[in-house]
Amino acid sequence: MNKIVKLILKSAICLCILTLSFIVANGESRASASVKSRYRETLNDIYINGMNVFIKYDANCTFGGQYPSEKEGCPYYLSPQDAAEGQVKYVDLNNDGIKEMVLKTNEDWHIFTQIKKKVRYAATITARNGGGWLYVKKSKKVFIVSTYGGRMTESYVFRLKGGILKKVCMIGEQVMFDANEQPYGEYYYNDKRTSEKKYKKINKKYVKSAVQVAFY
């Protein structure tokens, strides 16, 4: 096979690869647009009519004796005004290739997903100090709501599967001071005191290297 024929074959292969890449990317783009379109329909309805939501989890450490918290397990009405003043982000929370819609209002995270091209409201998570921050760790198929207050950093790990939201675990680290005003750490796992070793193990598994989802 001469050099000219080889060059033609290489060019043809490259062209095929580029064409296939364009087809796949174009298909993914259309699918993504359809997913967002369905979410926007739901969102527009909430902007007009509001909706009844359910606080499934309170992402606040309750080791002080309040468990579950007063908010956890309670429904409430999300008004059109609060919804309209909220922030919306489309992000894949469970690494299944389909983006969820997260509506953040005040201290609450409202999670919506899609199953068989239908929008489903999963649940609401509430958290102190403005709701904290949202992170995603794709390798573990989890997302994290993290807050800070009273020298206490808390990370609540969640998993969304089949439209059902479940809490995986909670870890916390609090800076304390001894009689000589020297700082030391207290560590928590699932709302109970734990060792620094266990805290670091769980933190490395679920929280470390997680990517923050920016809300503006």
Structural class: alpha+beta
Instruction: Count the E strands.
Output: 13
Uncertain spans, ≥5 residues at pLDDT below 50? 12-31
Global geometry: globular
Rounded average pLDDT: 84
Order of helical and strand elements? HEEHEEEEEEEEEEHE
The helical percent reads 25-40%
Count of individual domains: 1
* Rg from alpha-carbon coordinates: 23 Å
Task: Please give the largest β-sheet.
Answer: 7 strands, antiparallel
State the separation between the terminal residues, measured CA to CA: 59 Å
Major sheet: arrangement of strands: 12-11-10-9-8-7-13
Give the number of helices: 3
SS strand fraction = 35-45%
What does this entry look like structurally?
By secondary structure, the chain is an alpha+beta fold. The chain has one domain (3-212). Helix content is 30%, strand content 42%. It is built from 3 helices and 13 strands. The strands form 2 sheets. A 7-stranded antiparallel sheet has the order 12-11-10-9-8-7-13, with helices on one face. Strands 2-1-6-5-4-3 form a 6-stranded mixed sheet. The radius of gyration is 23 Å and the shape is globular. Residues 12-31 have low confidence and may be disordered.
